[in-house]
Predict the structure of Diphosphomevalonate decarboxylase.
Amino acid sequence: MPKKIMEMKYVGKKTTREAKKEMGGADNRKCAIRRRAKVDAEESNNGLYSWHLHVCSENNFPTAAGLASSAAGYACLVYTLAKLYGVKGDISSIARQGSGSACRSVLGGFVRWHKGCDPTGLDSIAQQIAIKERNFEMFAELTMKDSNQFHAMCLDTYPPAMYMNDMSHSIVHLIHLLNSEKGRTKVAYTFDAGSNACLYLLESDVSAVLSAINHVFPPANDSVEYLKGLPVNIDPLDKKVAESLAMKPHEPGSLKFIIHTQLGEGPQVVQDLDQHLLTTAGDPKFLNPRHDN
């Protein structure tokens, strides 16, 4: 599934007592799904509730890198169990108990996580939102400002929490130079709890922006999978644009790789057997990670 990123960051949490009472661990999430299943499903379940389940999961983007891999994992887990047990309606409140951001990942597109007022957390759910006005420049500016504010607040704690590094700040600098060179906000950055940048831009600008990134952060000579994800044709950077950026290229390989993706749907049931992670015998097809983490 496409990675999830927060445009508007959230801060704070419930009291420790409330949080412990609400979450209760992995067994609590299993029981929550089964309780919902008994209400939603038909009387006959063919012994489904006594099954022992074998779960196999895999990330196709970096783990522990501030890219919400835990949200993707828990969203898919809860979605799969809900499908298995015939649970109907909202499942975001269950997914949230494993990873807060997972409540947004069970839905596609742009999603809002409602804080809720109930101490039990039952009304702390996620809902997909509709975009009334497609104003990319406003969206981009708000996204960057919110990211900056979040990391400024992290630095203002004692001791400070430092997520961004020198490479992160170099990417920020490049994005502002690109927007200034074009005279409009054509690309936005945001950083969650990590040093990896997430860039937002329109499809029509992807090739030009990647050309600038490749110019400032050239790939290593042996970098076979430098650009992953959706295929895209990258034209050489215009000489005048390169001169106007006035940014000295970094050492080749300074960026490990780039993932080109797009706004996507939430979890999906895989119909193609070739995409399954398990063999027909129920064993994992890939015992070792296939992707760099």
About this structure: The mean pLDDT is 83. The chain has nine helices and six strands. Strands lie at 111-113, 126-128, 187-190, 198-201, 227-229, 258-260.
